[in-house]
Amino acid sequence: NEYPQLGVQFEVVHHSQFLLELIHSGKIKLQEGQELRLTFHDPCYLGRYNDIYDPPRQVLQAISKATMIEMRLNKTKAMCCGAGGGQIWIQSEKGRRIEDMRFEQVQEVDAQVVATACPYCTIMLDAVAQIKEPTGKIKVMDIAELVVRALAQ
Prior knowledge:
InterPro entries: Cys_rich_dom, HdrC_iron-sulfur_subunit. The protein is α/β, with parallel strands linked by helices. It has a single domain (3-150), classed as Rossmann fold (3-Layer(aba) Sandwich), CATH 3.40.50. The chain has six helices and four strands; from the N terminus they run αβααβαβαβα. The protein has helices at residues 15-25, 44-49, 54-62, 98-108, 119-132, 143-150, and strands at residues 36-40, 66-68, 113-116, 139-142. The chain has a four-stranded parallel sheet with strand order 2-1-3-4, sandwiched between helices. Strand 3, helix 5 and strand 4 form a beta-alpha-beta unit. Helix 1 crosses helix 3 and helix 4 crosses helix 5. It is globular. It starts with 14 loop residues before the first helix and ends with a helix. 31% of the residues are buried.
């Protein structure tokens, strides 16, 4: 969103939009994968700042045998992962942290995977997952990782 202010004009697309374009054009083909229950965490900047909600979900729906389950707070009402505003670098006080609250919502939908499309969200949610689900029952993955796993050979 800031590039025009810097005097440059070009279209910037998020990797979820690019992956969706590749899938729709047939440039990448996805094979039938394992059955998977997944949910999507909406990154703040992708959603609230850029109004991109559907492309990541459409990419995930293209992964066959994947069942998408929405968390109760999603899209425009989604909670932050806890990294927003530089919080990723701040030692938090004791008490309920925002990333803990968000991960509880992941647990509520009984997903095997929480997918996201932001490296900071991946870091924050994975840190909580390692504490709250040390057995690895819930994995945190970027949508690009899920696409790579589903690529046809």
